[in-house]
């Protein structure tokens, strides 16, 4: 199976971290968001991938090529014209082999192995209280009859959560091309949901599968929620000498942690230094330094330097904060 991963978004809700990194490379539970997605795809024996990049796409390509032994093609989406447009940019990947489209800014906890034997295209869905922010599906029995992008008036509470198994990619390619040729936009963008509806209209059968473990990484508070979820899947690391570790936590083997209390729900990433501090419910990114401080519900960006007193902060990469005692 081939995977398509659109990661072109700028990530404005994750600023200041996305001033220097693409959203999918922001750290959560010890590795970039995209790393968790790639790990899941490798576990499902995905054979190759096309990654649609945009903002700081060279960093995405460098990370994937240096970390994963998976044949990958990288294609740039030069204009942010919607998810449908992003997949259309990668239309050469839509051939005869079934494809899995997986959004690059969300962490999923779902068994995808059933898709290898599925007789039909299928969409990952989850019940939501407010469907106005999502594409939604309407079903008649097991099959989807209608898809609606971000309905102002709720017509269904079953949201499409960013996992799309396409049994017949050539038909999707044709439908995306029709959107582009006829300039068919919803909310001023080319929507993948609209292309899928064209497929349904032409006879493609879509089923759905439930995705209970769906973890958004689009803003600081949801990134911390996802960090908590992922840490709950981890075994406890070794406790550094002179420290207290309250699981669940992640402490990278290359991190230096001295005279500190770490956890619960703290990630201390590669090359970072934590001394004389209490860190809980927080993410300390690569090569950051934390001294003489208590941090809670905080994210400290790469190469940032923080010291002082109790705080709850979101500090971007390469920043320095000194809080007086």
TrEMBL record:
Keywords: Transferase
Single Gene Ontology MF annotation: transferase activity
One Pfam family per UniProt: NTP_transferase
Residues annotated as domain Nucleotidyl transferase: 3-232
Listed InterPro entries: Mannose-1P_guanyltransferase, NTP_transferase_dom, Nucleotide-diphossugar_trans
Top-level taxonomic group: Bacteria
PANTHER family to which the protein is assigned, alphabetical: SUGAR-1-PHOSPHATE GUANYL TRANSFERASE
Protein name, as recorded: Nucleotidyl transferase
